[in-house]
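Need a sequence for this fold. Nothing fancy.
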């Protein structure tokens, strides 16, 4: 593990906070591939001091800093500790970037789908795809504006890049949430919506709650999208969606 410094802490919304990380000694951080994560050991004292959790890197790959974006779990050990205890200037221990959930080179249209906090690896893939000038459809499903992570950042990428299209789903919009401005669709991305709006010949990457991922996987397989065009990551124990 490497000792690094938290140099910024930004509240994204009611549930998610981003932490910006630089090395402590000015040494370069190892460059990441789009989609990778780091492991972090933030607790310094007490019985939980060896607790380690994984967080996807959510910034543009290749920056000289890391950004992780953490959803606070009410009873969670590390996510709660990060939100409530870790402050700007603190040091934490992290691994180098890890993981095989990586955006592969391809000319096919790219579809990035996320549910909730599963947006984090999708964000770095979006940046990478924009750099490669790929056609991207970015589908983001969240509860409502209280959990709409990276809204302004994604809008700004979309406004600057005509090859990026977005579809934002609010499962349960607040009265103050405006359709057409804050979000595009109420409810979830149904089987019918996916079949009608996503390209069969695309490369698909997705991340989110297990039920969301199983639904996306089954729908894509039902559209005859081949296994090798389907890529996903679980934020818990890894499972093969084909066997669930
Ligand atoms: C590859 C990978 C990438 C990931 N990327 C991200 C990311 O970008 N952002 C992100 O936020 N997360 C990410 N995660 C998930 C993250 O690693 C943690 O699993 C998550 O933050 C929960 O950790 P925790 O220590 O807070 O919760 P834990 O203490 O490990 O608890 C796990 C769950 O159990 C619940 N729980 C614990 N104790 C109780 C109790 N007494 N009663 C009821 N419920 C309880 C918690 O609420 C929590 O939901 C990723 C995971 C993986 C594997």
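Here you go.
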């Amino acid at each position: 593990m490497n000792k690094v410094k938290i140099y910024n802490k930004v509240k994204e919304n009611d549930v998610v906070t981003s932490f910006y990380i630089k090395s402590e000694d000015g040494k370069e951080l190892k460059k990441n591939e789009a989609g990778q994560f780091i492991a972090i050991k933030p607790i310094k004292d007490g019985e939980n001091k060896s607790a380690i959790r994984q967080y996807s890197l959510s910034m543009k790959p290749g920056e000289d800093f890391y950004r992780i974006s953490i959803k606070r779990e009410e009873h969670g050990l590390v996510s709660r500790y990060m939100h409530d205890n870790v402050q700007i200037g603190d040091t934490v221990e992290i691994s180098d970037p890890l993981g095989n959930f990586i955006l592969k080179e391809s000319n096919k249209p790219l579809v990035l789908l996320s549910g909730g906090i599963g947006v984090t690896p999708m964000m770095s893939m979006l940046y990478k795809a924009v750099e490669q000038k790929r056609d991207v459809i970015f589908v983001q499903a969240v509860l409502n504006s209280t959990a709409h992570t990276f809204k302004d950042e994604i809008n700004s990428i979309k406004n600057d890049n005509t090859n990026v299209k977005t579809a934002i789903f609010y499962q349960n919009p607040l009265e103050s949430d405006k359709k057409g401005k804050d979000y595009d669709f109420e409810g979830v991305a149904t089987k019918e919506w996916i079949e009608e709006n996503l390209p069969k010949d695309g490369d698909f990457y997705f991340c989110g709650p297990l039920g969301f991922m199983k639904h996306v996987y089954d729908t894509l397989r039902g559209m005859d999208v081949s296994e090798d065009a389907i890529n996903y990551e679980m934020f818990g124990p890894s499972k093969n969606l084909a066997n669930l």
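For context: The helical segments are 78-85, 119-131, 151-160, 191-197, 210-222.
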